[in-house]
Amino acid sequence: MVYTPGVMAMGWEWRAWRRGSGVPRSDEVVGALSLVLDSNGFTAQLNSNKLVNNARLSVAILGFGLETPVRAGENRGEQLEHEFVVLGFASYQSNGRWQGTLPEAPLR
């Protein structure tokens, strides 16, 4: 069976988001992430009192309210509705400062 979790929190699948419960929290304070977007891309920085080595920043462009018409098979004529669809993804490694362009996402 293939399964893709919809939402991850602290490295684990978090199913309670559908019930509106708060995001799980850890008592460990790692730092604060700042992100600035502009027409050329982004700049991000992790402000932390801890030494940061080989930190990874993952950036995803998400699609919401997407529909796909079913053209064949037993569900022909139906519309599939999609939320939280990853349209573009990129991962950047650094020591707490990142600069880059946003991932490409297909136009619909």
Describe this protein's structure:
The protein is mainly beta and 108 residues long. The chain is built from no helices and nine strands. The strands form four sheets. It has a three-stranded antiparallel sheet, with no helix packed on it. A two-stranded antiparallel sheet has the order 1-2. The radius of gyration is 18 Å and the shape is extended. The mean pLDDT is 84.
Write the layout of secondary structure elements.
Blueprint (H helix, E strand, L loop, with lengths): L7 E2 L2 E2 L18 E7 L2 E7 L7 E9 L2 E4 L9 E4 L2 E10 L2 E4 L8
Antiparallel strand pairs: 1-2, 3-4, 4-9, 5-8, 6-7
Radius of gyration: 18 Å
Q: What number is the mean pLDDT?
A: 84
User: What is the overall number of helices?
Assistant: 0
Strands of the largest sheet, in order across it?
3-4-9
The 3D shape can be described as extended
Report the span from N to C terminus: 30 Å
List the quaternary state of the chains: single chain
What is the H/E string?
A: EEEEEEEEE
Task: Outline the biggest β-sheet.
Answer: 3 strands, antiparallel
Low-confidence blocks of residues: none
Query: Care to count the β-strands?
Result: 9
SS class: mainly beta
Q: Considering DSSP H and I runs of 4 or more, what fraction of the residues is helical? A: under 10%
Content of β-strand? over 45%
Question: What keywords describe this structure?
Answer:
108 residues; two-stranded antiparallel ribbon; mainly beta; three-stranded antiparallel beta sheet
Short précis:
Helix content is 0%, strand content 45%. It has no helices and 9 strands.
